[in-house]
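Q: Structure tokens for this one, please.
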Amino acid sequence: MTKAKLTLVVFLSSLMGLLAVPALAQNANDTAAIRNIIKSETAAWNKADAVAYASHFAADGTFTNILGAFYKGHDAFLAEHTQIFKTIFLGSTLQQDIVSLQFATPDVAVVEVLTAVTGAKIPGARSDSFDAKGRLRTRLLQVVARRGGEWKIVAYHNVEVKDALHAPEQQ
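A: Here is the predicted structure, written as tokens:
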């Protein structure tokens, strides 16, 4: 490698390092904003407020519930949660703990949440749908994307954790 090429490589590497610093600083703010979405979901669920629960869901977002039913769009997400807050999850309490929050790009993050719902009334539910404490446990994977300066949930995929898997206790 010539001296000129080596100098160019060193310069570009240094420049990339300098450019990465603002991105890292931004990540702390973005991480906090995404964590706040999870906190607001919990608060909204515990008030049975479907409008607030759906407030961060994208207009074109996709949603798969614990039964495997698939929905598309904010209106469908809102309608489904309006219904369940009046029926099977009426009076229930949600706890959510972030297991993993990773940025795929500066504008897209993947958030995995371990949830526990107490007080669910699911007719015909199998005995292994609830843990020994009577909680419905799920792993909720949400993909959030920055759109127009706001973080929006673009994919929401919820799967039930069977009691036999012994999900870790939440913090």
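A few notes: The radius of gyration is 20 Å. The longest strand covers residues 93-105.
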